[in-house]
Each structure stands twice: as structure tokens, then as C-alpha cells.
Design goal:
The chain has seven helices and four strands; from the N terminus they run H-H-H-E-E-H-H-H-E-H-E. The protein is of the alpha+beta class. The longest helix is centred in the first third of the chain and has 26 residues. It is elongated, with a radius of gyration of 29 Å. The termini are far apart.
Length: about 190
């Protein structure tokens, strides 16, 4: 009985008997918490106006991160993207018919790459001299079944749309009265 009464003293101080697994779990928890705090601050600071004196100090610290992650946005971040970003191209076929296409509508907006395609597909409108030839050749090949003669890039300018218009059942992205199409540039397609 005397042997059973003898016990080995246990050090009950916090962390004295902590195993590697417990240390690892605690480290992961703290790392995830720090990352979450960092990302939250970056998301909150990014859309603030650049003239804000307080934000200017932090902007250089967070700029590389928000650029790589793709959350470098302005106040437009909070508004829906209008039709002005959804430019169109018109294919003129060998028979003289015109076919209009909106490239961004071909991309499923539920996919993670939708925002990336949205930015890429703006380039022919923002810099037609730099990127227009590339995209014109690409769309000529893509629509080869139509036997295209030329492609015209068209900017879509969205007009004012009021709540009353919405209540009347009108659609600002499809009704021609709210959209003005402006031809940007015409490109000839290579004939085979």
C-alpha cells in the first residue's frame, strides 16, 4: 500500500507540460489571427481617398499586398459595375451583315476569374493603340465561322437611370434609350 501512496510530483504551471501539437496549434491560431487582422485593415484602408493624411502613411506599407491580392480599388469598389465597362465588338461578315458581341457576358460571373477577365477585356477600350490589334486578331479568329471582313470596337456609355425608370420596368443595361454606342476603332480581318 505504501508504494501506491507515493506519487510523482507534477508541475502544474501553465505551459510546463505543453506538447508540440499544442504549441503548433497555438502558433497556427495566432498566425491566422494576425493575417485576418492584416487583411481586414488592408481592405478598410484601400478604398479610402488618397488625400487622407492618416491613410498615406499606411498606404506604402499595404500597397504591395493589396496589389498582389487584387483588392487595390477605389470608392468604385462599392458600386456595381455599369455597362460602360461592358464594351462590345461588331463583326462585319462577307455578306455585309453585322453581328454584335459583348465579351464579358460569355464569362460566368460566378467563377473566380470573372473580375480578372473584366479588367483584361477593358484594355482594347482604354488603349486601342496598344492592345487593339491583338484583340481584333483574336476576335477575328474566334468568329471565323462568320467569315469576318472587319471588327469594330464599340464603347457603351450608360445614361442616367433613375428609380422611377426601374419601377416602370425599364432596364439600364439593355434598353437602347439608356445606352449610347460610340465606335472606337475599326480593324480589318485577314482574309484566308
Amino acid at each position: 500500500m505504501e508504494a501506491a501512496a507515493k506519487t510523482i510530483p507534477v508541475d502544474r504551471r501553465a505551459g510546463a507540460g505543453m506538447t508540440w501539437k499544442a504549441c503548433r496549434d497555438r502558433l497556427i491560431y495566432w498566425a491566422a489571427s494576425l493575417f485576418l487582422a492584416w487583411h481586414t485593415i488592408a481592405m478598410m484602408l484601400t478604398p479610402l481617398p488618397e488625400q487622407n493624411v492618416i491613410v498615406q502613411a499606411f498606404r506604402s506599407l499595404f500597397h504591395p499586398y493589396v496589389t498582389v491580392v487584387g483588392i487595390d480599388a477605389s470608392w468604385n469598389f462599392f458600386s456595381p459595375i455599369g455597362s460602360s465597362y461592358q464594351w462590345r465588338y461588331v463583326v462585319e461578315d462577307a455578306g455585309g451583315n453585322k453581328h454584335t458581341f459583348t465579351p464579358i457576358k460569355e464569362i460566368n460571373w460566378l467563377t473566380p476569374v470573372h473580375r480578372w477577365y473584366e479588367k483584361i477585356l477593358q484594355e482594347p477600350m482604354l488603349g486601342p493603340d496598344l492592345y487593339g490589334d491583338y484583340f481584333a486578331k483574336f476576335f477575328c479568329r474566334k468568329q471565323a465561322v462568320l467569315r469576318p471582313v472587319a471588327i469594330t470596337f464599340v464603347a457603351v456609355e450608360e445614361g442616367e437611370f433613375w428609380p422611377q425608370d426601374y419601377l416602370l420596368g425599364k432596364n439600364r443595361t439593355t434598353d437602347p434609350e439608356y445606352l449610347t454606342e460610340i465606335p472606337v476603332r475599326r480593324y480589318a480581318c485577314a482574309q484566308k
